[in-house]
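Let us practice reading a record.
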Amino acid sequence: MKKENEGLIKQFTGIQEELLPQVKLENNFYKEEISLVAGVDLAYWENDTKHYGTCCIVVVDYHTMKVVEKVHSYGEITVPYIPGFLAFRELPLIIEAAKKLKSSPTVYMFDGNGYLHYRHMGIATHASFFLKKPTIGVAKSYLKIKEQDFTMPKQEAGAFTDIIIDEEVYGRALRTTKGVKPIFVSCGNEIDLATSTEVVMNFINNESRLPIPVRLADLETHKVRKELKDNL
C-alpha cells in the first residue's frame, strides 16, 4: 500500500461501512416487471502520463435480446487504483453515462463484483445508491476473500456453487455453458441471489459465457476507447 493512499483508504472505508447497512439482498420488484437490463463496463488508457477512462452502458430488452440503447462517457481519471475501492475510481463516469440514458432499465448488470467483496461493497453494490435501481455483479475472475476458495460447479449449464465465507453467502460460481469456466455472480443491491442468477442465465447464448448486456458493454468499451485514443 502506498503511503500517500492511506488517507484515501481510511476515507473510502468509512463511506463503504456507512453504506453497507442500507444494502438489501432481496427483490424490490416483481420478476415479471423486468423489461430492460443495462450492461455496464469501463476501459482505461494513458496519454502523456494522464489516465483516462470510458464507461459504456448497453441496454438490452430482457425478452427479445435486442439492443435498445447505447451511451458512453469519458474523462480523466484522478482517483488512483486501490484494490477494494474501485467504485471510487469508476463512479463518476458511470453516473455521467447513466444520465444520458433515454430508456429506464429495470436492472443494471456490472462487469465486476457486488456483495462478493471484502466489505460487501463492490462496484455493483456501491453504484446502486446513485442509480436507484437493482444491480447485479458479474465477474470473469474470482476475488479471493479471507483465503477462501470456491467449489467448482458441475459441468452443465446453469450449475452453481455458493461462495460461503464465515457462514455467509457472498455470491456464487455459475457455469453458464457446459465446458467453459464459471463466472462469479453476486447481488448488487435490491435483488436476491436467485433472481440475479436467473437474470444472468436469461442472457446466455452460444457466443460467450458472459450474459449479453455485460458482453456487449465490454465490446463497446474497446471500440469507444480506440476511437477516443485516436482522437483525443
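A brief commentary: The longest strand covers residues 36-47.
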